[in-house]
Amino acid sequence: MITHGNEIELFSGNSNKPLAEAIARELKMQLSGIEVGTFSDGEISVHLSETVRGKDVFLIQSTSAPVNNNLMELLIMIDAARRASAGRITAVVPYFGYARQDRKARSRDPITAKLVADILTSAGADRVLTMDLHAAQIQGFFDIPVDHLLGSSILSKYYKKKTNEDWVVVSPDVGSVARARNFASTINCPLAIVDKRRPKANAIEVMNIIGDVQGKTCLMVDDMIDTAGTICQGAEALVKNGAKEVYACCTHGVLSGPALDRLAASPIKEIAILDTIDMADKVKDFPKIKILSVAKLFAAAITKIYSDSSLSEIYED
Question: Is pLDDT at 204 greater than 60 in this prediction?
Answer without folding.
Answer: no
